[in-house]
Amino acid sequence: MVDSTTPIDWLVDEHPQEECGVLGIYAPKEDVARMAFFGLYALQHRGQEAAGIAVADGRGIHMHKDSGLVSQVFSPERIASLKGDFALGHVRYSTTGSSALSNAQPFLIETQYGPIAVAHNGNLVNAAELRAGMLRNGMGFSSSSDSEVITMMLAGAPGANWFERIKNAMQRWQGAYSLVVLTRDQLFAVRDPWGIRPLTVGMLPTGGHAVASESGALRSLGCQAIREVRPGEVIMLTNTALSVAQALPPAAQTALCTFEHIYFSRPDSFWDGRSVHQVRQRLGQQLAEEAPAVADVVVPVPDSSIPAAIGYAARSGIPYNDGFIKNRYIGRTFIEPTDSLRKMGVMLKYNVIFENVLDRRVVLIDDSIVRGNTTGPLVRLLREAGAREVHLRITCPPIRHPCFMGVDMGTYDELMAHRHTLEEIRQISGADSLAYLSLKGMKKAIGREEGYCDACFTGVYPFEVNAHTAKTGFEQPAGEQA
Amino acid sequence: MVDSTTPIDWLVDEHPQEECGVLGIYAPKEDVARMAFFGLYALQHRGQEAAGIAVADGRGIHMHKDSGLVSQVFSPERIASLKGDFALGHVRYSTTGSSALSNAQPFLIETQYGPIAVAHNGNLVNAAELRAGMLRNGMGFSSSSDSEVITMMLAGAPGANWFERIKNAMQRWQGAYSLVVLTRDQLFAVRDPWGIRPLTVGMLPTGGHAVASESGALRSLGCQAIREVRPGEVIMLTNTALSVAQALPPAAQTALCTFEHIYFSRPDSFWDGRSVHQVRQRLGQQLAEEAPAVADVVVPVPDSSIPAAIGYAARSGIPYNDGFIKNRYIGRTFIEPTDSLRKMGVMLKYNVIFENVLDRRVVLIDDSIVRGNTTGPLVRLLREAGAREVHLRITCPPIRHPCFMGVDMGTYDELMAHRHTLEEIRQISGADSLAYLSLKGMKKAIGREEGYCDACFTGVYPFEVNAHTAKTGFEQPAGEQA
Amino acid sequence: MVDSTTPIDWLVDEHPQEECGVLGIYAPKEDVARMAFFGLYALQHRGQEAAGIAVADGRGIHMHKDSGLVSQVFSPERIASLKGDFALGHVRYSTTGSSALSNAQPFLIETQYGPIAVAHNGNLVNAAELRAGMLRNGMGFSSSSDSEVITMMLAGAPGANWFERIKNAMQRWQGAYSLVVLTRDQLFAVRDPWGIRPLTVGMLPTGGHAVASESGALRSLGCQAIREVRPGEVIMLTNTALSVAQALPPAAQTALCTFEHIYFSRPDSFWDGRSVHQVRQRLGQQLAEEAPAVADVVVPVPDSSIPAAIGYAARSGIPYNDGFIKNRYIGRTFIEPTDSLRKMGVMLKYNVIFENVLDRRVVLIDDSIVRGNTTGPLVRLLREAGAREVHLRITCPPIRHPCFMGVDMGTYDELMAHRHTLEEIRQISGADSLAYLSLKGMKKAIGREEGYCDACFTGVYPFEVNAHTAKTGFEQPAGEQA
Amino acid sequence: MVDSTTPIDWLVDEHPQEECGVLGIYAPKEDVARMAFFGLYALQHRGQEAAGIAVADGRGIHMHKDSGLVSQVFSPERIASLKGDFALGHVRYSTTGSSALSNAQPFLIETQYGPIAVAHNGNLVNAAELRAGMLRNGMGFSSSSDSEVITMMLAGAPGANWFERIKNAMQRWQGAYSLVVLTRDQLFAVRDPWGIRPLTVGMLPTGGHAVASESGALRSLGCQAIREVRPGEVIMLTNTALSVAQALPPAAQTALCTFEHIYFSRPDSFWDGRSVHQVRQRLGQQLAEEAPAVADVVVPVPDSSIPAAIGYAARSGIPYNDGFIKNRYIGRTFIEPTDSLRKMGVMLKYNVIFENVLDRRVVLIDDSIVRGNTTGPLVRLLREAGAREVHLRITCPPIRHPCFMGVDMGTYDELMAHRHTLEEIRQISGADSLAYLSLKGMKKAIGREEGYCDACFTGVYPFEVNAHTAKTGFEQPAGEQA
Predict the structure, then answer these.
(1) Quick one: pLDDT band at residue C172, thresholds 50, 70, 90?
(2) What DSSP character marks residue C188?
(3) Cβ contact (<8 Å) for A481 and D60?
(4) Residue B410's domain spans which residues?
(5) Residue C65 is part of a domain; what is its CATH number?
(6) What number of other Cβ atoms are within 10 A of residue D393's Cβ?
(7) Alpha-carbon distances of D186 from A139, B65, D122, D209, rounded to whole Å
(8) What pLDDT score does C97 carry?
(9) How close A422 comes to chain B (CA, Å)?
(10) What CATH number should be reported for the domain holding residue C281?
């Protein structure tokens, strides 16, 4: 049931929720806040709940953050008031902690070494233990976010300079963290040794450097010489060169998030040196080989499944076509249909294109099934539009395990493939046939056997995880600010 | 130059701007304002500047309208405050008149016969004359919209009842008008005798009827038995049946807007009984026949050109693929790039997918070229990404004449194909080859020789047009409300 | 009962509500919108519901208006966007018509002679007839305000220039109207022949002139040579001089509103050439003579009764002191006490100063009793604080008749002194004694026997009034915009 | 010069700025958030910059705070969302720290013992040292407020329960603190051993108790049995009784703020068991004796000097009258006069009542002169209105020393009486004569020789103060959130 105070995001679907996009810019003499605005705009798909920008001018840090889309949070006056040489940006979709404003990022605090601001993408699996220890030491927390734990640990970490303090704090962090850290005159990019979440750096055309969760955002800023921050690296962005240090050795086995390929990243981004759009096409091709269907048309669930559907169609020889129109007009609203309207079949997000599926045998390509709320209604829409058969094909293996590294897959109880057999899922979805891509096939399509995290498919986590404390980080915050 | 008080809509491109979507609902006992909200949401692509809903409860009319997206203009409290059996809705993109709030619709006035509210899609070509006459008679106007002229004329039209008054007013209107008219206890759908802009009615599943600019919106509301309002018809929506009258005879030659097929309508809508998505596919197929290319990949300008690109690819045998990613996160902002950022190549709306075009010969499908601002940059993006050749294919003929029937094509001076030869356009765009679909081919793809308005291609208007007064209706308003 | 959508204005009390303050400025080369902002700020006591400013620059008129206090409606950006040589301003408290935004002023319309904007203070008693006639002629109205009737009549009035059109329209207006009229290059001040509501003009120190409802606002702008606009006058403000014309002869018997002295005007304003503060002191002195009391302290109901209490104390020799503290923090809120909180005696607006009344015999001075909601609670507060006796003294005669000239006194049924005898009112109020100032005494204090309207005391209206149509002007609007 | 991003509060004058009002309510079964709203409304004069309410329901704490007046910060929906048995409220005017939202109160943090929220009025003179120590221990601060230091120290204080932890933290605090502390199921009132700032408790008529900065707010809530929290006391509010403990012994010499009598408190409040209104009258009487004048009228600077002017008039026999009208319409605005408008003499806050001072010898009573920005213009207004003589009388001694206990008197350099002799001040003000009340006379009027802090007059602080660190608590925050 939807709480009356929860906005309904028409475009939030049953996909796993990515929590964040991060961004950093060092571009002396440029309008860094404006650049950060455009960079965050290119990362908006990674989080629509809140946005924030902090800038440093050598003497201090100024910040603005609020709930809403980047374009809603920032006015020209706000951007103009944020002057400096360094910028830090963040877009957020809540995972741990409540979605309250107090969890919005960046986190900005005053420390004994001056102010620092932190933008974080990921999730520490030992955040609850770390936080409990700090509470026992008499500290107070103003939010329930593990990113505040990270920020507070940086304030108290030993070390002669910020690089050393970051390095020392990293020793104690277990889990996923792609960070951008801003001091009054330095900007750092930090990635965990497992390389779980993406982070890339590039050179700005007019001098200076930028760091962002995805290469697509760096390209939007005109960056060249883009490369990933390597697992365990700390990079200080300077005007002329990157100052790179391997703060922690990379994990023996890295654990890059497979789901960046399956769903999260923009198709024009690179992940692990691979074009996301091309990986998705290969996932479709591989699926066509593993799970062919006798059909008349291949139809994607827009927009995420389009590349895979193109690949499936190309490999199978079955024509590709649109089957659904997705309403593009994003906007959070608190208005929801009444029961009566629901019964009338009010369709808000997807409309079917009748003529493209009428009397056809349809292959429906979806990138994944997580909680399973969307698939059934889409199959039903196709049937009501006159599709003769619907063959559901999923571009990854069944998701049977939660993620503790920053992706909100839901709990075991919520995962469709944990609760049900494939045949049950087929029946629930109403499809004539259902097939998932095999783990092996997925890896083949990605083009690499090792180095990725497959925990949501296999339950094999890259490190030990205490499922009781890791998921939400710690118990629900008793103090909460609206 | 962009005025500092003008919001920048990142998704407004050089397409012609449709001015409006209209909606009416008669559903006693249902929450008609909520239904109107969802219906407008499905019409949002027809206007993002302002939205409004008026409801009637048998005794009076209550209205709320404001600038912004439907989801921004209406809160649950607003919807809850609008109670009644009838609803009228409107989404607007400005054509005539300024974009000020005072031009937002519906227009609601008190008349000698009680209140009426009007939602209008179209443009009267004789609005300036009509308005001048009313001004001479001592009337005042609070906006510069021809829709206010329409509303005021209804207030003063002779006739024993609203149907007669509407019918009498129609005698004097020259141009495009698809109207929904709400009184305190009646709801009318009205379409001009030329049938220029679309208007459809359908039966609601729980009783009552609805009228909307597009069938796609009626489908979103669960409507069945959808049919178009015929040219010259006035339909009164009732609970049990439609009360239909042919107020004016249909024009000897109807003038349905071709551009609804080319660009405006949702792909899942029908226009003139034809599936818009399928017409667009056929435009692509026809284009493949008329203007083949030796190439490796067919790439659409998303989203409007996707169906045509699918058709071009299917007919030509050249594989279809995505070439661009379009940023989905709509949001008006007043923040624009600095010159320095522009030089850096900040890309806000489209990013190219390098790997899909690198070292390939690309067919780029675009639905139309109006002012020509978008095409060149897109071709350049492809080249910079390593495309070997770019063959630009346009799914309609060159647009050489302005529209005076409610579509903002710009003036003669702004129209690329009015100012330049095809070879010049090719050079400006930077493409290796350029071809437009022929008028004959376009008609063939649509499937009908006659009955459409081709004025923007041919200069042959469906009726006499005074180009000096018709375009903006009348001179710029000297009084303006922000 | 308070509707849940009605804001509660903590400082709205049972006083009659004045509907408006008007303002006009002609000051070439000055920032007229900013001046209008400050002028309206000084008129804010005359209306807190909505505010608006229109400016003219010789070519057109630009306007902004909205609900709220002047300081809430106008931001620096808004003020900066309103450029011109002429400004028109309005603050509003609703009388006729609903309080909806559509009734906010100024009214701005396009006419055959260009745009005009009108700000109106007063009420036409024949508005309903005039409006009905215009409706019959086929006009539509977008609000229920008689000010829109005035504006529309100006649009249609015969005459070779605006002065003539104003003059001609005035022939047909019956009732109270102090107007400021702005065209694209002219500014007029207009006052009805009865001189019912105030209107004053003055010379700005840097050149140009200003007009305002009260001299206090002109003084705030630094004006000199302030004089009243005479009954029936139309004055055109120019840069160097006032262009004055007697459009209509003054009424044989003028009807200046007595209540401007009693309650409405700022104490530092002049009304009818008399200092309002001094008139109020004399009202108190006269009351001390007519209705002496044996008491220890004279206490005013703040703030309006302070001058009269000073006068009463001075004449009677009984010491003056504060008895109540009034919460200054105005702000509209929708939050109201629960019944439980009401029973707890939550005091929002007035707190008593115990020590000043404890064990004393108190003379409580109030300027008037209209509906009688405030007096009783205040007397009770005094008693609970330990006052031995409370002698209530009112600085005007009993109000037994409604006002139809722009002051919301309520209907006959609502007027305390219409429904009850003096002794009943005393008992209801809980006072030990009660006395009103006599009509004769009031006139003596004002200093003039004739020329004022005493209708609310005597029922003798300055002209014939149709009580059925005059009060709200016409029946409740069936169409209403929120 | 006023920064363009600083709102101009028309009613902020040169008075010292009080930083806060605090409030706590324990009233099971009542709507405590609503009660807190009304209580804060009655404390609004103590801070107009920000407001906040936190409620506890036995399990957790929920809070809302924002910039603005109480009526602006809280909507009915907000109030309705704050459910519980305990409420904590705060209104703020900034002293230390910037005025940014991050300094708004209450402060709410999660501690090892659960959430706590703190509302603070006062200033710790050793906050900078305490904060520096905590920073050295690795803590981070998200604001520059000493109230955050207090809150964080409570989180880390030793002790088996909250009472003990509060008591232990108090040992280390030097300075002024009247606190209300809320846990998930307890509510405490805490006052420093010097009793510098006020704090009172009372019994609610329907059961439960309330605590507030001033008795006037408790009276507004209907409280009875009101008494002050004694210096050094910690009181736990319960349903049936107060649980009182003397956590620290009262200071040998208490240091009650004299300025609560002179200016801060509502006139209907009690301070140190004395009626504030009556103390102010006696200040005026004493002043009449010490500094008589031959004059025709006694005029107050409204509103704060009214009681003293009444007292001066009564004792001297010179008639009391209003000399100025103060604009009541509070509202923050960013709009300020241009230089040209300033030269025109635009008066925003005070207008003189000409007739009351014309050709008179005026005694002008002002409560204090701090920076001296207001007095001169007011004297000039009187002269321009025709006053023959102006005799300025101040109801307290010259202020020559800054306050470090929570009142923003400005720095030494800003204090008029620190920089100038009395004769200079008289000349600057333009008065014919000037007299301050003597220290001895002030104490006589208050009615008590010892126990008050006179530091701003004498420079004798109640404890040692490090003027370099105490004023703003610590150096300007380098990190700041807008």
Answers:
(1) very high
(2) E
(3) no
(4) 277-327+338-447
(5) 3.60.20.10
(6) 28
(7) 20, 47, 22, 12
(8) 41
(9) 31
(10) 3.40.50.2020
